[in-house]
């Protein structure tokens, strides 16, 4: 199924949560707290201002973002659980530093 966001809606793939606690205890899925970080999968074209001009969104596909705990609506598309939310529900974009990029490599 193809899905296209409308207006200022953004589709998010949640980041994977921790499987173990700091003490090494394995956390079952039902007790895990859902992460408030995710990757932007799709974005709408933007909103229109009072004069009818299209104002594009600040986030792009592939951005790593932080969002509120109760933000968005969970949907299942092609067997994958995703979040759909308005851009205003996004708190910010996580930018990778050079040190983090070096560590990942």
Automatic annotation (TrEMBL):
Similarity field: Belongs to the GroES chaperonin family.
GO molecular-function terms, A-Z: ATP binding; metal ion binding; protein folding chaperone; protein-folding chaperone binding; unfolded protein binding
Subcellular compartments: Cytoplasm
Job of this protein: Together with the chaperonin GroEL, plays an essential role in assisting protein folding. The GroEL-GroES system forms a nano-cage that allows encapsulation of the non-native substrate proteins and provides a physical environment optimized to promote and accelerate protein folding. GroES binds to the apical surface of the GroEL ring, thereby capping the opening of the GroEL channel.
Entries under SUPFAM superfamilies matching the protein: GroES-like
Subunit structure comment from the entry: Heptamer of 7 subunits arranged in a ring. Interacts with the chaperonin GroEL.
UniProt-listed CDD domains: cpn10
Species assigned in the record: Rhizobium esperanzae
The name this protein goes by in its record: Co-chaperonin GroES
Predominant subcellular localization, coarse grouping: cytoplasm
GO cellular component terms attached to this protein's record: cytoplasm
Keywords for this protein: Chaperone, Cytoplasm
Listed Pfam families: Cpn10 (PF00166)
């Amino acid at each position: 199924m193809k899905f296209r966001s409308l207006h200022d809606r953004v589709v998010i793939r949640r980041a994977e949560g921790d499987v173990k606690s700091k003490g090494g205890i394995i956390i079952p899925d039902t007790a895990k707290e859902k992460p408030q970080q995710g990757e932007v999968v799709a974005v709408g074209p933007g909103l229109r201002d009072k004069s009818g001009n299209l104002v594009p969104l600040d986030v792009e596909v592939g951005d790593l973002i932080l969002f509120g705990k109760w933000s968005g609506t969970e949907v299942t598309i092609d067997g994958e659980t995703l979040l759909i939310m308005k851009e205003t529900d996004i708190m910010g974009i996580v930018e990778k530093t050079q040190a983090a990029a070096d560590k990942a490599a």
